[in-house]
Amino acid sequence: MKSSDLSIIDVLDFKPDRGLVELENRRVLIFDGNILMELRRTIVENIGWEKCQPVIFHYGYEVGSLDAKSLGEMYRWETPEEWFKAGAAMLTQRGYCKTVLNHLSLNRDKDQLLFRGRWFNSYEVDSHKHLKLTDTGPVCFVISGYLSGFASVCFEREVLVQEQECFHRQHCSFEGRFVEDWGKQGIRFLEASKDHDLQHKYALLNKQLSASRVKSVPQKDEDPSSGDMLGKRAEWLPYRSKSMTRVVEMAHQVAKTSANILITGGTGVGKEVVANYIHSLSPMSKSKFIAINCTALPLALLESELFGHCKGAFTGADRDKKGLMIEAGSGTIFLDEIGDVPLSVQVKLLRALQERKVRPVGCNTEVAIKARVIASTNRNLEEMMKEGKFRADLYYRLNVFPIHIPSLQERRDDILPIARYFLSKYAPGSKGFSPRVAYVLENYEWPGNVRELGNAIERAGILAGDNKIRIEHLPPALTAGEEVSALQQVKEGWPSLGDLEKKYILSVLEYCEGKKMKAAKILGIGSNTLWRKLKKYQ
Ligand SMILES: [Zn+2]
Question: In angstroms, what is the span from residue 8 Cα to ligand 1's centroid?
Fold first, then answer.
């Protein structure tokens, strides 16, 4: 039998009436390539790409060696070389990639083996692109594994196939040798791929990963979402993006100084968290961190909050009040949304920063201030300066050390680590995210940034209970483009049609913030019908 005569159609046995596809009595499945991509994504996300390599290599190796044995049983091959070439043909016909062998030599003593070739159109290159991984090294480990396993059976000795070029080229090129000829590195790789104690390894790796790859500052105990403005402590979030690493580096550099800081970034990116973090690293960390949201207060109140007032300064001022700038002592005062401060207060702030003194409202005396000022804004202050809405001198005073916090969209690498962090916080018993959810989380625009992500995960955690987070647990805004499969819901414990209807109606109502007319419109039913159903569900 010549390898060029091999046809996968001959080898496969289709038995549709019995629900079977067989290859020499081995059951085979017709797989959707996307499922393998998703599987790879999950493994990569959990153990990292490098550790994933021997795992998927092993998968390919097993399939390759089984195919070699089957074909060995089915046909009589003229030589081991011819039998091996059938493996290359199987790779092509199975749809993994088009395989072209350029060289194959086995010496007379059968102790030297070398083969070389190329892979075109590799499904693994596609899947790697799909995962948006940027490695430029080899990625075709399932295919390498397959050919290694196949060759090891044909030549009755461990063979290892490795890629020389991959991914960024038009094609991949590979080379195969007996494993010993690859040296220690090759032997170690093959051994790692045959280590079946994955469960243990996985746990160990997870531990190592959380300690190293995803950097995280030790958690503080208080809940950052509590409304308490005073003495609030920092919650730190994991990150691994370059841009966030840079932010943290800058925070460390500036923390040692007493320079004024301006933190910019969109809504919900965590400007206050970074301000608090800088405070905690600074020599002032033993003193207070006081945050004030400048948007939330009307003009008169903002002034008296910041600078204080004397008794009788205005109606209702029945005693002296220390302003927050004084209250902060030698700590840090964080002025959130500085862009919303009216011009009249801007003048006073400028003076406070220049002279390090403030005059409380209605008082004749001035009080010295020692606190460091960190301001933040999600507005474009330079634009506001041009329009005369923000004082240039104040801007330059504050902008001594600018830090820009990138939006989640700009650092998608951080989304899943942060989501996992929130999940462990809000739903400690949860079994993680389904791959689809991970995909949606990573690809959503997140206009509300970290805050929105935190809210979404908290909600999903409540809905999912101790189960895996699935697409239907995410807020509707995230899944607008996704189809929530009713079947997916059904798979979890087969709820009745009524239960499903109830769940769906309630989640639409929640989305509409309780507005029944709007909900009825989305549901495509009359408001009377909705009312009746709600009554039924109590
Ligand atoms: Zn490749």
Answer: 23
- Ligand 1 centroid to residue 145 C-alpha, Å: 12
Sign of the CA dihedral running 292, 293, 296, 301: positive
Q: Per the confidence metrics, is the pTM higher than 0.85?
A: no
Residue 285: closest CA among 239, 238, 331: 331
Does CATH number 3.40.50.300 belong to domain 242-404? Answer: yes
CATH code of domain 418-537:
1.10.8.60
Q: How far apart are the first and last CA of the chain?
A: 74
Cα 74 to Cα 1, 10, 83, 239, distances in angstroms: 10, 11, 11, 54
Tokens 């094609």 correspond to what residue? Answer: 171
Q: Ligand 1 centre from 148 Cα, in Å?
A: 14
- CATH architecture designation of domain 3-208: 2-Layer Sandwich (3.30)
Each residue of 36-79: pLDDT tens digit? Answer: 888 888 888 887 788 888 988 998 999 999 999 999 888 888 89
Residue ranges of the alpha helices (H) in 48-79? 49-74
Residue 326, both tokens:
């004084």
476-527 residue pLDDT tens: 888 876 554 444 444 445 667 777 788 788 888 877 777 888 888 888 888 8
C-alpha of residue 140 to centroid of ligand 1, in Å: 4
Q: Where in the chain is the domain with CATH 3.30.1380.20?
A: 3-208
CA of 124 to the centre of ligand 1 (A): 7
DSSP result, 76-113: --SSHHHHHHHHHHHHHHTTS-EEEEEEEEE-TTS--E
For CATH 3.40.50.300, the residue range(s) in the chain are 242-404
Please give the distance, rounded to the nearest whole angstrom, from the Cα atom of residue 379 to the centre of ligand 1: 47
What's the CA gap between 277 and 203, in Å, rounded? Answer: 31
Sheet with 332-336: strands ordered across: 289-293, 332-336, 372-377, 261-264, 401-404
Expressed in angstroms and rounded, the spacing between residue 194 Cα and the centre of ligand 1 is 21
